[in-house]
Amino acid sequence: MDVESLLERISGYNHEKVHQRLSGKRLAGTTRWLLNHPDFKAWFIEKRFPTLWCSGKIGSGKTMIATAVIEAAKYELGSPTVFFYCEGDGHAGLDVSSILSSLIKQLCEYLHRMHRMHRPYPEGVAKEIRKFFGDKRVKPDFDDLKDIFTHLFHHTPDTIYVVDGVDALDQKHAKSLLELVRLLFIDTTPQQQSRILLLSRDQVPGYININTFIPGIRQISTSANVMQDIKTYIESSIIDKNICRKLTDDPVLIEKVRQRLLAESSGMFLWVYLQLEILWDTCFDDAAIQSALAKLPKSLEATYSRCIERIDHKDSRVLKVLKWVSFATIPLHIEELREAIAFDLEDTAWSAEKIPRKEFVIGCCANLVVVDSTDDRVRFAHSSVRQYLEKGRQRNIIQGYPASEQGILECGEFCVAYLSFSDFSLQLSTRRIEKAAVPVRSPILFAQETLPALLTRHLFQKPRDQKRSVSALFHRIRTASMPDRAQYRFLDYAVTNWALQTKQIRRTSLMWEKFERLAMCFNETWNFHPWVPGGRSASSHLHGLLGWAVMEQHEPLLSIAQGEGPALRLVCNLPLIGESLPALHVAAKLGYEAMIEILLDFCKVNAPDLEGYTALHHAASRGHIEICQLLCSSKKIKVDALSRFQRTPLWLAASNGHEEVVSLLAEKQADIETKDVFLHQTPLSRAAEMGHDVVVELLLGKGAELESQDAGGRTPLSCAVEQCHETTIELLLENGANLNTKDLDITDFLIWATEKGFMGIVRLFCRNTADLNIKDKSGRTLLSRAAESGHEEVMKVLLESGADVEAKDKQMGQTPLIWAVKNGHEAVVKVLLETGADVEAKDKEYGQTPLLWAAIYGHKAVVKVLLENGADPEAKDKEYGRTPLAWASENVHEAVVKVLLESGAHFEAKDKQMAPTPLLRAAVYGHKAVVKVLLENGADPEAKDKEYGQTPLLWAAIYGHEAVVKVLLENGADPEAKDKEYGQTPLIWAINNGHEAVVKLLLGKSFSGSP
């Protein structure tokens, strides 16, 4: 299959065509307010947040905004741009799966273009695409599509996503979409940088608030921002309409029209559009215009009511127009609609004389319907018109306007009646029927040639006579001569949609006989069937009908196929055309309960597919509990059927965390210890590895083996540990899982649990072992690791259980207190000190106390806690002989310096190398704030180091620390002080080292101090 065909199979939604149609309606100069909005720029260009929501009233221009953003992303930003318009003007395809399919298609198109530029294509994704959309596909459900989209999402960073009209989805699908957005965009990594714009009314169906589903989403409302655009729209529309018919010659009145419409619009373009249409359609003098302006409706609903009042309710064709615009699967072309309203169910032939003129079709509904100039298709002025009609059914505002389900059926029944016209050779009185017994190869022989031998050996017995053919009766219809198809403008719609729109047809329908004939008769001239048969035989036709009926959940068609009895049994277990699964498997995988109930009457419940999966495997894997219950009700069901990899339905259910299904199958005596051939895991091991706690608990309650080992010798506990499933580990330990297994290093395991802060696991360990002071390869204890990680509660558990508070690690000889201090964990430090930890304990390598470490790292709060608990502020380290104050001064920890000085630390303490004071160190490193604090607390500005005899001012001048020089001079430092080795003043050092700013400071001080 070529790439174009594969992409078309992913989604038939032509996103570019829809975008071109909608963007053509946008007026130049409008929507700029959004593109210039600070929040939009922060989302679009600066990428400061990943989600943005543009909300607004019905008809406030949100779709036009979407078109502008899409074009800006494509042509200005140059980012991959993926989008979907939820128009809500047809009854087919508007669900979250259709949206995902289109987004997947667009991402695949982008990746294909990149692949041609020698960019790698993600092989895992390519495999999934071929699996679900290739020649032998498995129809994807929502979970499949979500997985594929997630993979593509992570493989295409910095992508702009736009979804317009989220409120057009029903509650279930809107919720699913928003949950997916939250999953991908709120938890996205900073490197991903993809962003999404959602456009909708303030609330989507079911009173769902987008802010609730996507925390932190930035919102921009159209309400206060579109008035300038509406003004532009009014001006442009009046100019355009005056070209066709001048409303008035009075410029003052025209200006009044402009001002009134702008003032009353409430930010709704749609309201303005309808008022303009009504004015031009009904006002033919200035008095009428004045009257209309005085009585402008206040809302859209009031406007729609006025349109309804202008309709001729006696003309039955008006109702037909409203029904077709409401319930057609896609908007009808004006020529299609003309034919659709011309005929009745009783008609038997096509007649051009009955077809009304285009002007009537458009004008009969008083501005509620419009012909889109971009594609000549008829739509409501806005999707809210249909919602108004649905709400108004109870008030009977349009007599005979049906509920949605009935409206769809009535459209479908008309399609059946249309296709039954004598023009298409299906009338009983005119059709030519041939009944013939023809040799048809046995489906068994066909299957044995196409399916793997191992599968067919179990599925079918070898026919006694391989040369014997199966006879079948079928109807074949030919038309005497090929007619002019172009003459019948409604024909293509009828052929495509008669089956889709008759899912609710009943045998009591006046159209049932024609419907049944249409389903069961070949028409070689017209080919009215939406399904593709595998050949020309009756069996192939029946097989195609069966597959389509199941895939589309078409019970009436399936009941017709069911009536074929023995012929159906021959083909019902074969893979469907274009699919790799038989009918029962497809229904089980997709959760089609009604289909399963019918299929069980004639399909083999244990028939395997190419992977050896039965229908129960598919239902169990997806967690379809009702389907599993139906399948298990069959007396012939094998609950422990093995797939090619020896996986049972229970194994798959456990793997995917479907508790109810696992429980059901266990009650049906399914084996809970069966191991698959690939991983050699039991259901318990698999559930533990996947972190499905409820399933783990259920299996343990059913007596599952706690210490079973897989191919790598891993127990369920080991599997859970590898995947870091804390609660699963805790659950297994509570049920007696053995920690001392060959595949599990108990020390590494407990160190890991401690570092992660998994208190429950640590508590269980403390309860079941005596050795709380086991050490890892670095010689560190659990307490040491917990202290470093800052897990206070874990620390308490270990200490309460008797862990050694003074245990030192092998490498550096540091106590748990030192590890906690170094990492600034104040709460943990307090716990350790309360337990009796030595506040003066020194590490082996540096001889530093906890206070020294706290000063080095600048942990002010920890320094205070240590001092409050008696830590010596004058303690010196082993290597340099520095005090905490010296370290804090050198490392610029001003707050720590203050705390130490307040506690009485000696600010003139010298170390054992160059013997500099803290002030000297701060001056050397240019730490102005620390220098200032030390001077304020009495530090000597003339203190000299032992080796060079240099004052703080000399050091600051040498290194060019202008700010420090200034502070020292302000605090009386001697600008004429000389060093011991060269006898040079600060000024000479600054000149020699090229520090111009310091030179100026020192010169100024010298001149001001001269006599």
3D architecture notes:
With 1011 residues, this protein is mainly alpha-helical. Among the domains are: 3-225, 3-Layer(aba) Sandwich (Rossmann fold); 228-296; 312-404, Orthogonal Bundle (Arc Repressor Mutant, subunit A); 916-1011, Serine Threonine Protein Phosphatase 5, Tetratricopeptide repeat (Alpha Horseshoe). The strands form four sheets. The chain has a five-stranded parallel β-sheet with strand order 2-3-4-1-5. Strands 8-11-12 form a three-stranded mixed β-sheet. Helix 9 (171-186) links the parallel strand 3 and strand 4. It is flat, with a radius of gyration of 40 Å. It starts with a helix and ends with a helix.
